[in-house]
Amino acid sequence: MALVVQKYGGSSVADAHSVKRVAKRIAEAKRAGNDVVVVVSAMGDTTDELLDLAQQITPLPPQRELDILLTAGERISMALLAMAITNLGVKAKSFTGQQAGVITDAVHGRARIVDVVPHRIRETLEKGQVAIVAGFQGVTQQTNDVTTLGRGGSDTTAVALAAGLGADVCEIYTDVDGVFTADPRIVPSARKIDRVTYEEMLELAASGAKVLALRSVEYARRYGVPVHVRSSFSSAPGTLVAAAPQEEEAVEAPIISGVAHDRSESKITVVGVPDHVGTAAGIFEVVAASGANIDMIVQNVSAAATGLTDISFTLPDGDGPATMAALAGVQAEIGFSSLQYDDQIGKLSLVGAGMKSHPGVSAQLFGALRDAGINIEMISTSEIRISVVTREDSLDDAVRAVHTAFGLDVADGEAVVYAGTGR
Amino acid sequence: MALVVQKYGGSSVADAHSVKRVAKRIAEAKRAGNDVVVVVSAMGDTTDELLDLAQQITPLPPQRELDILLTAGERISMALLAMAITNLGVKAKSFTGQQAGVITDAVHGRARIVDVVPHRIRETLEKGQVAIVAGFQGVTQQTNDVTTLGRGGSDTTAVALAAGLGADVCEIYTDVDGVFTADPRIVPSARKIDRVTYEEMLELAASGAKVLALRSVEYARRYGVPVHVRSSFSSAPGTLVAAAPQEEEAVEAPIISGVAHDRSESKITVVGVPDHVGTAAGIFEVVAASGANIDMIVQNVSAAATGLTDISFTLPDGDGPATMAALAGVQAEIGFSSLQYDDQIGKLSLVGAGMKSHPGVSAQLFGALRDAGINIEMISTSEIRISVVTREDSLDDAVRAVHTAFGLDVADGEAVVYAGTGR
Fold first, then answer.
1. Nearest to B144 among A53, A58, A99 (CB)
2. A113 contacts A138 by C-beta, under 8 angstroms
3. pLDDT per residue over B227-253, tens digit each?
4. DSSP labels for A130-197?
5. What confidence score (pLDDT) does residue B126 get?
6. Which residues of B13-41 are buried (b: 16+ CB within 10 A; e: fewer)?
7. Record-annotated residues binding substrate (chains A, B) (predicted)?
8. pLDDT of res. B275
9. Quick one: CA dihedral B84, B85, B89, B92, positive or negative?
10. Is A54 in Cβ contact with B84 (below 8 Å)?
């Protein structure tokens, strides 16, 4: 008998019909002899609708109250799901984040889980019942206040509970069949990845793959929780995210696991920066103070004749306006000549644990882009990832070209069925 | 400086605009120097919408899960109200029933408050902040499970908190100006009652007046909490529900406080019952076992020739079918000849503490109905109430005739403004 934590997202419980469908799946897992804990998100667009209500009241709602408001969404879905499962003859009980023992820090709106003490969940399992837990929410230890974990928080709740309960696997149900070598909407020949390491999944999630929240992968890696990403519409196996296999097993592991892309970043270029010690530091202190989360940085070699250089960096689109305003405020002080803002960029990332031991991956990537006529504007690398910035309107072509160049396309005759929208 | 508990119903916080209007009123009470605790219901029809969702899942949802589902409604309204008050520059914090220390028994769906331990509410007041509390909900002491108090539960939450905090007054805000001598939709000349005793309010609430939930009045009487029923749309004083005034003040008190009516009952007649000892007991044991909440009972004098009698009783419409079925099942055993069911009845109740010391009130009531040509089918009385059953379609005429006969109509030239629907 296995202990399984299953997580269902908002699209899997969007209405009463979907709730009943998911309930059937859960009841089957229970009847198959497993102990089952279910983490559920708010139904469909509930969270956005509640946010909209808050905006109608005030443009800047107090975070503590916003968290109380938003957690109403999971309260609704978890109770309905418990009803639907009970209706199938399987006993089920629902629990808020607080009742499930999800303890967080007090940073409302993006709290971090600091501990999981799932006494009531264990009791429920011992009674042979299914435990339904509200995702996305926790409680502070000191003040007993309700917190939320931020977008993607339900994935993190599921992984944290799986770790706290010592579950055999954490199943993340979604509307796609698993993690793909590229977004199937862009690359129709993309294939489902059967297995990927935590490190690769971290790089994929950080590079724009939206199937798993980054923080949940970090959590899974830290506690060694195997995560199975799969479709709630089929019973086919999805993608297993787990530790790297032992060396002897790894012989056949592919060099590249996938190509991720991201359209949600912009590029700011600070033009004509005096090339003195400390100038770059001054610029990035201002950027950091504006709250921006910068990604890639490129500094040109300064022209000997002028002693001036240009510094470019990328950041999420949403951080653009505040950062531009902050930089404009220190133009005289730092002495740069102008600022450029470009939101028409795209980022392509090639991820694979194998590239550590295979030289030449970068050269092959740049060659593939050159052959496809695509210009590279910025480059950054980690041990298992290479990212390049291109024009946004050539990003799709770039993804397809790289996917083919690295032999990731589905071979002729292989059948791949996409269950959902392939996000 | 007074400590005021204010309760706002669902119609007072039906949308963002209404929430802001109520927030302004609360901020004014706070700025006037009061300590303010606010109890709030779910917005508009939220509770009914959630019930409908549950019905889409299963016709018989588990009560524990239904309570978790329904309490999401107050979570939304309380957070929005706290945001709106904060936005006006007055600090406010919202609390669930659990956080506010509303402890109940474990009867899900209609739990009773067994204790109120409002530590966090007191702390909040001591910091000079407004405390917003979710109405209608509490938590069990043993299992830490969420419960609901049933329809009208927010009134009870407000009165219980006022008692627990030793508040100076509990203000129940509604969409009418207060308690009226009759329903103004039926009797346009009805007048607002300035003051009414707990006992009279109990009789009015039990006889069909819907402005205050019966259980909240019981609670207020037990703990001596003055309750002020008033309109959230005006600043005019409403109706004060409080203990009977001292004898010397009571000289001018009116004999009759009001005329209530109720269309929600049906009448069952058991025809041809053998007039033996214990037969009536047998019938009402069956009725009680069916879960019906019976109101009035009349047994005819048995005809000497046959030794048979008829027994009639009234009960809520909703209890009718189950009770008829239960009685039909024991027809042979008890030996009555037939059953009659009549849902076309109306009940009129005349309530007034003064009738204790004023004989002749019954005679005056029956005379007024006779003069209006209205037939009386059943009669029941308490110390301060007389109720009669009439045909449902003559109930309105009966209410108007009695209201006039007891001098309750507004005198010529008195201006009465109805704020709302006068329910």
1. A99
2. yes
3. 999 998 888 999 999 998 766 555 555
4. EEEEETTEEEETTT--EEE--TTHHHHHHHHHHHHHT-SEEEEEESSSS-BSS-TTT-TT--B-SEEE
5. 97
6. bbebebbbebbebbbebbeeebbbbbbbb
7. 47, 74
8. 81
9. negative
10. no
Percent of chain B with pLDDT over 70: 94
Q: Tokens representing B17?
A: 């605009």
Q: Are B96 and A64 in contact (CB under 8 A)?
A: no
Q: Evaluate if residue A77 carries a pLDDT over 90.
A: yes
Rounded alpha-carbon distances, angstroms, from residue A400 to A182, A281, A377, A403, A407: 9, 38, 18, 5, 11
| CA gap B137, B156 in Å, rounded | 10
Length, in residues, of chain B? 423
DSSP B180: B
Q: Is the pLDDT of residue B338 over 80?
A: yes
Phi (first) and psi of residue B19, to 5 degrees: -60, -40
A341-358, pLDDT tens digit by residue? Answer: 999 999 999 999 888 777
A-B contacts at Cβ under 8 angstroms = 105
Q: Is pLDDT larger for residue A95 or for residue B232? A: A95
Name the closest residue on chain A to residue B63, using Cα atoms. Answer: A83
Partner A, chain B 88-107, Cβ-Cβ below 8 Å:
93-94, 96, 99
- CA-CA distance, A401 to B290, in Å (whole number)? 75
pLDDT at B196: 94
Check the annotation: does B198 bind a ligand: no
B87, A50: Cβ pair inside 8 Å? no
- Residue A390 assigned to a binding site: no
pLDDT band, very low/low/confident/very high, at A418 (cuts 50, 70, 90): very low
pLDDT at B156 over 70: yes
Domains of chain B (ranges; CATH) run 3-174 (3.40.1160.10), 245-423 (3.30.2130.10)
Which of B38, B43, B76 to probe by mutation at the A interface, max A CB count within 10 Å? B76
Nearest CA in chain A to B60: A87
Sign of the dihedral defined by the CA atoms of residues A48, A51, A55, A60, in that order: negative
Please give the DSSP secondary-structure letter assigned to residue B192: B
CB nearest A72 (choices: B61, B72, B84): B72
Tell me the whole-structure pTM to 2 decimals. 0.83
In this prediction, residue A414 carries a pLDDT of: 53
Binary contact (A66, B79; C-beta < 8 A): yes
Q: Do A72 and B68 touch (CB under 8 A)?
A: no
Rounded to 5 degrees, φ, ψ at B303 are -75, 125
The answer to whether the Cβ–Cβ distance between A80 and B144 falls below 8 Å is no
- Chain B residues with CB under 8 Å of A82 CB are 62, 65, 68
Instruction: Report the share of chain B in percent with pLDDT over 90.
Output: 72
pLDDT digits over B74-120, tens only? 999 999 999 999 999 999 999 999 999 999 999 999 899 999 999 99
Say yes or no to pLDDT of B269 above 70. Answer: yes
> Residue A183 and residue A261: Cα distance in Å, rounded?
8
CB B134 within 8 A of CB B71: yes
**CA separation for the pair B132, B130 (Å, rounded):** 7
Residue type, A38: V
Mutate to test the interface with A, among B38, B49, B68 (most CBs of A within 10 A): B68
Q: What is the ipTM of this complex?
A: 0.79
pLDDT in tens, A160-203: 999 999 999 999 999 889 999 999 999 999 999 999 999 999 99
Q: What residues contact A323, with CB distance under 8 A and at least 6 apart?
A: A268, A287, A290, A292, A315
Q: Is A292 exposed, middle or buried (0-12, 13-18, 19+ CB in 10 A)?
A: buried
- Residue B308 bridge partners (DSSP): B274, B303
Pick the residue of A69, A87, A119, A129 with the most B CBs within 10 A to test the interface with B by mutation: A69
CB contact under 8 A, A83 and B62: yes
Q: Which two tokens stand for residue A352?
A: 């694979």
The pLDDT assigned to A412 comes to: 57
